[in-house]
Amino acid sequence: MRGLTRYQWTVFFAAWLGWGFDIFDAMLFNFVAPNAIPSLLGLEIGSPEAKDAVYHWTGIMTSALLVGWAVGGIIFGKIADKIGRTKTLALTMAMYSIGTALCAFAPNIWILLLCRLIAALGIGGEWAAGAAMVAEVIPGEKRVEAGALLYTSAPFGLFLAMGVNYVIAGHMFAHDPEMSWRYTLAFGLVPAIIAFIIRLFVKEPEVWENMEDKESMGKLGDLFKPGYLPLTISGFLVVFTALIVWWSANAFLPIIANGLAQIQAQADGLDTAATLALGEKWKFNTSLYFNVGGFIGTLLTIPFAKALGRKAMFKIYFFCSILSMLGTFGLDLSPEIRLYGYFFIGVFVFGVFGAFTFYLPELFPTRIRGTGSGFCYNIGRIIAAAGPLLVGAASTTEAAMNVLFWIGFVPAIGILLMPWIIETKGRAIVDQ
User: Fold this and answer.
1) For residue 393, what pLDDT is reported?
2) In contact, 393 and 282? CB cutoff 8 Å
3) Is 429 within a domain?
4) Are 362 and 354 within 8 A, CB to CB?
5) Cα dihedral sign for 206, 210, 214, 219?
6) Strand, coil or helix: what is 256?
7) Alpha carbon distances (Å) from 286 to 31, 130, 324
8) CA 363, CA 429: separation in Å to the nearest integer?
9) 3-class DSSP state of 139
10) Cβ neighbours of residue 61 under 8 Å, at least 6 residues apart?
């Protein structure tokens, strides 16, 4: 990345913050779910009825988030081609910030679901605008590095969500779990401030500005024309495979960690307060393993993609995703040792997403780059929403881990679909 101008770094950092806070707002709810859901349903936190409700409603909330994410990604991907990358980036950041903050004031579970859907529309739309903006501003020879580094903001977002929850729910308001989740979600408003700053200092990419026929840009139907359909299929297939596994594993990470902590606490004879404290600690540690693994895995896409090509890279990540999921949820491990498996899940299940920020913009020309990237990155979320629902239907930690074990075979589908994946190594992006 050496040699970039100050402005190119500004654009990159704006997109990096946009995606990082995107993940921050998306994941914040998962950390507060064990307290938020029972509170809104009038159940005692930590009771058997509360645990069942948490699994059930986290599955519903996550699936609703994915559907809203998909719709927002498609709509705002098209808008990014029409009105510009920078305007869309700021608009979507403001939307997901306000939606998440409104969750803090939800009086019941249904209003919470509605606010999550509002946030989901913005969360889905931000990625396509940011990825297209970076691909068009950063020089072509640095596109892989920029794309992969752009996705390192995702572990940052997860780590930030984990940290905010740990400080507020684990320390500042640990004595009041019925309210601590509201204070945590209120922090979701922070990205709106960043969005305002971005609009002040970042202009539209010259490539987009120089497009003469703006009316012809962002047409969703163009993705299915003979010349572009193979590109659309290629982008959809690799993302769809990765989405199912990532969301199934990550959405329930705090709940799995909390459930394993309760199993360990029961074996150690801990009281209720100590059990709650152990749950917060294990959620923090497990998220840390997952995020560090994801950060490393994201960076590894750079040498793999440049040396081996995109298709070989995807094969490696999908094969190792199978091993990490089956090992973590299939081997006979103690509760605490099992949590270490999330590091390897992070490297491969999480890490492969670092490739999509450079692979999808490489596939499409400028006039449908936002539309195509947004569609491929998001449409699969509608189908992937079934994954969290399946895990959420499980009534115990053991049952949820059994479902995750079988989801570990999903990446094999991605390997079988490789003949339809288009190689983009050495390809210049098409500016038309």
Assistant:
1) 61
2) no
3) no
4) no
5) negative
6) helix
7) 12, 29, 15
8) 7
9) coil
10) 29, 33, 112, 113, 116
Residue 403 has which token pair?
A: 């479902």
Instruction: Give pLDDT, residue 318.
Output: 96
How many beta carbons lie within 10 A of that of residue 111, not counting itself?
14
In this structure, the chain runs to a length of 432
Rounded CA-CA distance 3/186 in Å is 39
Task: Say if CB 355 and CB 153 are below 8 A apart.
Answer: no
HSE of 30, CA atoms in CB hemisphere, 13 A: 33
Q: Each residue of 108-162: pLDDT tens digit? A: 999 999 999 999 898 888 877 887 888 788 887 787 888 888 888 887 888 888 8
- Indicate which CATH number applies to the domain containing 94: 1.20.1250.20
Selection from 123, 193, 180 nearest residue 157 by Cα: 123
What is the pLDDT at residue 336? 85
b/e code 397-423 from CB counts within 10 Å (16+ = b)? beebbebbbebbebbeebbebeeebbe
User: CB-based contacts of 186: which residues, under 8 Å, 6+ apart?
Assistant: 101, 104
- Please enumerate in sequence order all residues whose Cβ is within 8 A of that of 178, keeping only pairs 6 or more positions apart, or say none: 35, 39, 45
CA–CA separation, 299 vs 309, rounded Å?
15
Find where tokens 């990205």 sit.
Answer: 191
CA distance linking residue 44 with residue 28, whole number of Å = 22
Closest by CA to 353, choosing from 221, 249, 255, 275, is 249
How confident is the model over 385-397, as pLDDT tens digits?
666 666 656 556 7
Domain count, the chain: 1
The Cβ of residue 275 has, within 10 Å, a number of other Cβ atoms equal to 17
Q: According to the model, what pLDDT value does residue 157 have?
A: 85
pTM given for the model: 0.76
Indicate whether 427 belongs to any domain. Answer: no
Q: Is residue 1 part of a domain?
A: no
Pairwise CA distance, residues 306 & 423, whole Å: 12
Reported in sequence order, the residue ranges of 20-99 that DSSP labels E, i.e. its strands, are: none
What DSSP string describes 409-427?
TTHHHHHHTGGGPPP-TTP
Place of tokens 């913009």: 361
Residues of the chain under the 70 pLDDT cut: 212-218, 385-396, 428-432
Domain holding 195, by residue range, is 6-420
pLDDT for res 429: 65
Residue 431 lies in a domain: no
